[in-house]
Design a protein that fits this description.
The complex is a heterodimer of chains A (343) and B (301). Chain A is mainly alpha-helical and 343 residues long. Chain A contains 15 helices and 2 strands. The chains are: A mainly alpha (343), B mainly alpha (301).
């Protein structure tokens, strides 16, 4: 263990270290050298072990509250566990999973999660890209705009959802009132399947578009101006520049935001929970906007089946791994085709 | 050397502003925004701010007025009355205090531990470093819901339900934070500085205190703010671990308002306003820094 670490932290030979080295080599040397020998040993121990001491707190907490629970979820998913007695676990094998597969509410929740995920992620990222493009112009009050588009990010899920419940209200909501001005009949946002999913997606879009716009903006600022210069020399219009310079340069960032938003969409929970008002964790009277996260909560903390909740959690995990894999494949193909087209 | 000096020096290669304007003039790229750009941005800004403003408007009315069309567009006179009701009914005083404690400890813990670990990953060499770093990055993407059942079992067994440590401890460290600090310190901290200090016989704690912390300060501030916002708004785990009538955070208390037997919408809005206000004030004060932090993190990540 000693050689790589002690060598790697390059300690240039300083007088005190050298003297100390001599002290350890000859133990019978003058006693005056002893303290410095001790100091040098302490010094070496310090360089050798301090890295571990620095990462230790993180990993202690991480193992206790991150890794262990994650693995234990898998273990718990093979048991019947009641919320009222979480320590009583009865082995049931894969029964929680097979139940899940034949549970129409699971498939409903999965479907809803996918639909709401698409409804919220796609417009959010497209709008964010557009806004980032506009923010990239030379603007008066640019920092005002940047802070303003980020304020929804500071609003909690709970506060945002409570407001949107009112705005989407069927009888007195602002949106229906505005639609009424345009001559459209009031929409029962909460009780329709698509309308409620649209409404829930709106909350997500509202909270995250500005945040993503800033991320795109940062990436845009890192694009070399030379690229635009040569595009301009080639007579590319603004739109063509955006299409052929900006978007390709942003590809890694776009992929990153897609991954992050997809993960966010998979765990969507607070918005559908609070959007149903007093209906609780069902995600609407007809489960029309119940997501997987909400379904997990309902199974575990309303129906008291922690084992089944764990099975849902692990299924979500597998879905995420699958999404990650697909993403990885796509990004690999993209980079490959890019290389191909360049050569 | 003052912090700003360090920051400027440190960020110089990354800070794209001067570079950009120069390159732009050359390339004729960074055009001034046209009227249409302003128009769209203003519409978007209004859309971003409107729900918050309307929260305040609704909070200043009463329930009867909110059940009429057209909806109110201007403030009424009931704001303080509603705030008071929300304050007492939803346990808001306790909730705000609890949330401040939780978000404060989580932010402090995350910043401290992330700086130590991020420094080790950025500048020190030790066994299993790459493996451990891979583990950190790999867990950045794992959603908290996956571990919520065992966490609940732990909390129940330790009888921590409704105690703040049940929400503080599980989020006290963050993989994102470690990665963020590592990325920053990789560039911000010249290895020569550490070596020179080492040569003078400085212990690693002294190096940490006198060299790493000063260099990391800007990133620590950003990470602290981002973590604070996240912890303040955290929802899923707190509503499992805490109860509305015991020791709630603001978010937990708000669910009580929304679902309880007080159907008074203006009071609900007053509660939402109370829970959001501290962060909004922080945004007015530090908005620029938070924006800078998010953008900086984006380029690095």
């Amino acid at each position: 263990m000693s050689s790589p670490s002690s060598q790697s932290v390059k300690v240039p030979p300083s007088p005190s270290v050298e003297g100390a080295e001599g002290g350890t080599a000859g133990p019978g040397a003058e006693p005056a050298r002893r303290p410095s020998a001790w100091r040098s040993r302490r010094y070496r121990w310090d360089t050798k072990f301090s890295p571990y001491a620095y990462v230790a707190p993180f990993f202690v907490f991480f193992v206790a509250f991150g890794l262990f629970p994650l693995l234990y979820t898998g273990w718990a998913s093979l048991h019947q566990v009641e919320l009222t007695a979480p320590t009583d676990m009865n082995w049931v094998g894969l029964r929680n999973f097979s139940r899940l597969m034949s549970d129409e509410f699971f498939w409903n929740a999965l479907r809803n999660t996918v639909t709401i995920g698409i409804l919220s992620t796609v417009p959010q990222l497209v709008i964010a890209l557009g806004i980032a493009h506009l923010l990239h112009y030379k603007l008066r009050g640019s920092s005002f705009f940047r802070v303003a588009v980020l304020t929804p990010y500071a609003t909690s899920v709970a506060a945002a959802t409570l407001v949107f419940v009112l705005l989407f209200g069927r009888d007195y909501g602002m949106f229906n009132w505005a639609l009424g001005m345009l001559g459209v009949d009031p929409v029962d946002w909460q009780n329709g399947t698509l309308t409620s999913q649209f409404a829930v997606s709106t909350i997500v879009i509202w909270r995250w578009t500005g945040y993503n716009a800033l991320i795109y903006l940062a990436a845009m600022q890192a694009i070399s101006p030379d690229l635009y210069e040569s595009a301009e020399l080639d007579g590319a219009s603004r739109w063509q520049q955006f299409r052929h310079v900006t978007v390709p340069s942003l590809r890694p960032t776009i992929l990153f935001t897609v991954v992050v938003s997809t993960i966010g969409a998979t765990q969507l929970f607070g918005e559908p929970l609070l959007f149903s008002g007093s209906a609780g964790a069902t995600g609407g009277s007809d489960h029309q906007f119940q997501t997987l996260g909400l379904y997990l909560y309902e199974q575990g903390w309303v129906n008291l089946h922690l084992g089944r909740a764990s099975a849902i959690a692990w299924t979500m995990f597998l879905i995420l791994v699958l999404i990650g894999l697909v993403n990885w494949l796509i990004s690999r193909r993209l980079t490959k085709s890019e290389k191909g087209s360049r050569s | 050397m003052s912090t700003t000096a360090v920051r400027d020096e440190v960020r110089a290669p990354r800070d794209l502003k001067p570079e950009r304007t120069r390159g732009v003039r050359k390339a004729g790229r960074q055009r001034h925004a046209g009227k249409l750009t302003y128009a769209i941005l203003i519409v978007f800004t209004v859309g971003s701010l409107f729900p918050l403003v309307w929260t305040a408007i609704a909070a200043s009315r009463n329930n009867t007025r909110l059940a009429q069309t057209p909806p109110p567009f201007w403030f009424g006179g009931n704001l303080f009355k509603n705030l008071e009701i929300a304050w007492t009914d939803a346990n808001m005083g306790t909730a705000l205090l609890n949330t401040a404690v939780v978000a404060g400890s989580v932010a402090a813990g995350t910043v401290l531990f992330s700086t130590f670990a991020g420094f080790a990953f950025a500048k020190l060499r030790f066994r299993f470093k790459n493996l451990l770093l891979l583990l950190v990055i790999g867990t950045m993407m794992v959603p908290p819901q996956l571990s919520v059942v065992p966490l609940y079992m732990m909390v129940a067994k330790l009888q921590w339900t409704d105690q703040l440590q049940s929400v503080i401890l599980p989020t006290l460290v963050s993989a994102f934070g470690v990665f963020f600090m590592r990325q920053y310190l990789m560039e911000a901290l010249p290895i020569e500085l550490i070596e020179a200090a080492r040569m003078d016989g400085a212990s690693s704690i002294r190096v940490m205190w006198h060299i790493v912390f000063p260099a990391a300060r800007p990133a620590m501030a950003v990470l602290g703010m981002l973590t604070f916002v996240m912890a303040w708004n955290d929802f899923f785990w707190p509503i499992i671990a805490l109860t509305q009538n015991g020791s709630p955070t603001v978010q937990v208390a708000l669910t009580g308002l929304g679902r309880g037997f007080i159907p008074d919408q203006s009071v609900i809005m007053a509660g939402a306003l109370l829970g959001t206000l501290p962060l909004l004030i922080a945004f007015v004060l530090f908005g620029k820094q938070i924006v800078g932090g998010i953008m900086q993190g984006a380029v690095k990540g």
